[in-house]
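User: quick one, sequence for these tokens?
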């Protein structure tokens, strides 16, 4: 099979070790290292079974060379005592957000954490009391459904709707939910996992008007915001929609999805409002949820030197998406309602195949999808297409075979 090498000719003053030069950057996303036996959650699940893991959201690609170098340099130091957050890491984040998203933040707004899920829990706990309500949507990344319940809050769950060719909010129901006097927090997945929507600014403004009117705190999880596949889509950071909106928003971010460093456990919350920030930090206090020295080094390297790799990765993922769309034409009963606009996740409606447990049937056929039921979307599976094109072809080939034996294939 011929190799597809993503070549990117770019002016990249900060890439690699050669500063200030014009370079041709080449990244080989076709050659992914073997991950079985490498302490990988994704691959360990199907150890010693002929099932291709394409579930949990990390990619099979090696991280940007600058990230790998930074980790090697840190490991070579050989001393791994308690970490401190150096000013340089804050500067990296501030500069990155200004450069990529036009968002001007202050370093003191940042709270580091080992990952983002604790940030969802902390926002709920610092902005509501037990018995009060959290507005959330479905299908969605599972902690958006479980975190309110774990914290003894009442989830007000709304189904996302498919209108005029795209997934969006059910505005009428959303207004009713936000208007409940006991509703205190809204969970926003921006861009949206698993529907891969990049919301328009106008949709987010409508949402902002609702939370303003009903006085809700928003937890905006923007972990997928740097893998925008749709060239026409532009990500809007929710907190940028006005000073009053930024004052009621906890923004959760990380380099982990984009630069494939989830195993280095480093994320952060950005909270401009000092009172909300203090309450948030108080909830986390004493839980030892700090990031580690490798996570800090990798985050800084990714944000400072990862841009050429990021662009090449987006390009490769678009190619994977083209292949998926092409192959789905011959898979009746597998419905991808809209081309994913972001990240590396595709949400398939497979209810028409007529399987009682579609996830299990695909596993039997050698494919380890995420189970839609876990996201509040039974009858669906989620494909992680952050893998080599060759692996994706094999996944799609296996899907064909499962579809061919489905009881209800159209
Ligand atoms: C929307 C969203 N938030 C958070 C996470 C997980 O982040 P972390 O590993 O930093 O907790 C994921 C992982 O898939 C995700 O999709």
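Assistant:
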């Amino acid at each position: 099979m011929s190799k597809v090498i993503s070549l990117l000719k770019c002016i990249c003053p900060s890439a690699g070790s050669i500063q200030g030069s014009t370079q041709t950057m080449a990244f080989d996303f076709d050659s992914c290292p073997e991950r079985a036996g490498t302490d990988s959650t994704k691959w360990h699940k199907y150890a010693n079974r002929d099932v291709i893991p394409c579930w949990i959201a990390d990619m099979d690609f090696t991280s940007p060379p600058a990230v790998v170098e930074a980790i090697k340099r840190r490991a070579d130091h050989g001393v791994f005592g308690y970490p401190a957050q150096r000013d340089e890491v804050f500067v990296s984040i501030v500069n990155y957000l200004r450069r990529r998203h036009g968002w001007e933040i202050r370093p003191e707004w940042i709270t580091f954490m080992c990952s983002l899920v604790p940030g969802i829990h902390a926002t709920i706990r610092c902005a509501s009391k037990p018995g009060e309500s959290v507005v959330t949507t479905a299908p969605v990344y599972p902690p958006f459904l479980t975190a309110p319940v774990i914290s003894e809050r009442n989830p007000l769950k709304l189904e996302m709707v498919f209108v005029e060719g795209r997934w969006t909010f059910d505005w009428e129901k959303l207004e009713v939910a936000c208007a409940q006097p006991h509703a205190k927090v809204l969970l926003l997945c921006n861009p949206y996992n698993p529907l891969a929507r990049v919301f328009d600014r106008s949709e987010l403004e409508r949402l902002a008007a609702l939370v303003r009117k009903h006085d809700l705190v928003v937890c905006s999880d923007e972990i997928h915001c740097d893998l925008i596949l749709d060239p026409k889509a532009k990500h809007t950071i929710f907190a940028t929609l006005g000073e009053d909106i930024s004052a009621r928003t906890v923004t959760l971010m990380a380099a982990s999805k984009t630069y494939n460093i989830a195993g280095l456990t480093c994320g952060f919350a950005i909270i401009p409002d000092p009172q909300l920030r203090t309450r948030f930090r108080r909830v986390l206090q004493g839980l030892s949820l700090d990031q580690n020295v490798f996570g800090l080094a990798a985050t800084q390297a990714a944000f400072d030197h990862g841009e050429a790799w990021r662009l090449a990765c987006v390009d490769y993922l678009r190619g994977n998406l083209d292949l998926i769309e092409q192959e789905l034409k011959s898979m009746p009963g597998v419905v991808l309602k809209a081309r994913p606009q972001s990240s590396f996740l595709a949400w398939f409606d497979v209810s028409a195949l007529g399987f009682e447990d579609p996830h299990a049937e695909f596993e039997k056929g050698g494919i380890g999808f995420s189970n839609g039921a876990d996201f509040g979307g039974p009858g669906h599976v989620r494909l992680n297409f952050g893998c080599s094109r060759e692996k994706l072809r094999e996944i799609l080939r296996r899907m064909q075979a499962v579809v061919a034996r489905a009881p209800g294939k159209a």
